[in-house]
UniProtKB/TrEMBL annotation:
Compositional bias ranges of the Basic and acidic residues kind: 20-89
Region Disordered: start-end pairs: 1-135
Protein name according to UniProt: Uncharacterized protein
Source organism, top-level taxon: Eukaryota
Length: 135
């Protein structure tokens, strides 16, 4: 018979050709749909993965911030403690209250009484000096 050109489709009857065109069309559509679904699924997976990573990042950042806060707190406590130790280590100031006698107790009221007694009345610095002498 007559030679067909290479790559030419085999001859088909009209009825046949119609059906196969539709079959192809359906197959192509099906293929497209599958690819589309695959793409959507992959995209969804990627999105979830990204969200998971972001969530992890946020978690890690929270943990790091909490840890940093704890460290800061520890450092503050440490320096407070050190400051307190330094304060107690320093010799007590001579007198914290106003008055002109040396070596005050650092207690305002007592020093005040002490001062007024010893300065004005030549008292002993005892609280009893405040009481009037018995008549």
């Amino acid at each position: 018979g007559p030679r067909r050109g290479r790559g030419a489709p085999p001859p088909v009857s009209a009825a046949n050709s119609k059906r196969s065109v539709f079959d192809d069309f359906d197959r192509i559509e099906e293929e497209k749909r599958k690819q589309e679904e695959e793409l959507i699924r992959r995209r969804e997976e990627e999105r979830q993965e990204k969200e998971r990573q972001e969530a992890e990042l946020i978690e890690r950042r929270k943990r790091e911030e909490a840890e940093a806060a704890r460290q800061t707190h520890r450092r503050e406590e440490e320096s407070k403690r050190r400051a307190a130790e330094e304060r107690t280590a320093k010799p007590a100031p001579v007198s914290r209250s106003p008055g002109n006698h040396v070596g005050g107790s650092g207690h305002k009221l007592v020093d005040m009484l002490h001062n007024s007694n010893s300065d004005e009345w030549g008292g002993t610095g005892d609280m009893m000096d405040l009481l009037p002498d018995e008549a």
